[in-house]
Amino acid sequence: QVHLQESGPGLVKPSETLSLTCTVSGGSLSSYYWSWIRQPAGKGLEWIGRIYYSGTTKYNPSLKSRVTMSVDTSKSQFSLKLTSVTAADTAVYYCAREGTSQAIHHWGQGTLVTVSS
Amino acid sequence: DIQMTQSPSSLSASVGDRVTITCRASQGIGDDLGWYQHKPGKAPKRLIYAASRLQSGVPSRFSGSGSGTEFTLTISSLQAEDFATYYCLQHNSDPPTFGQGTKVEVK
Description:
The complex is a heterodimer.
Chain A: E1 3-7, E2 11-12, E3 18-25, E4 33-39, E5 46-52, E6 57-59, E7 67-72, E8 77-82, E9 91-98, E10 104-107, E11 111-115
Parallel strand pairs in A: 2-11
Antiparallel strand pairs in A: 1-3, 3-8, 4-5, 4-9, 5-6, 7-8, 9-10, 9-11
Chain B: E1 4-7, E2 10-13, E3 19-25, E4 33-38, E5 45-49, E6 53-54, E7 62-67, E8 70-75, E9 85-90, E10 97-98, E11 102-106
């Protein structure tokens, strides 16, 4: 069974860059799309974007100007960078694997990132 | 973006109750919809894919129906472990979008 685990700083200062990594175990990155999703406290879930194991990306237009995703198949990891963060970026961030037709299947348990000085 | 309107936002129910949750899409999405169960601090779990297909290992008391714009998740007989928040997710067109969630609480 594939397992995903998010990691990264839990506190980021305003205007700085949020960086998170998702480590995948129990399966290969190959042939799948990998997504990032977030949920601010008390609000709904928002899809941030996806990356294919080959490196092809697609981002949510609402965040596209600030998002970069990358993949490292040798480490079974993929990563998220979100620049120029504000308090509005405070959220629980999830990584996930997509399956057939880009349907999100497996999720990590999420990591809370707080933007505060 | 496709808007997913999920209702109700919360409900109170007892063990053994039949529970129904609805998602309505702002435009037709075929059967490109999944239902997820989320408990605090845990990874969300997919229950239903392709609108009506039961994920392997998920109890048969969960079922999904619908296509196009109207979708339903039904729990035929609520169990203690089913108290959680449930979300629908459309993946017909990017960006994928979620319903606002339904919190199922103990009555």
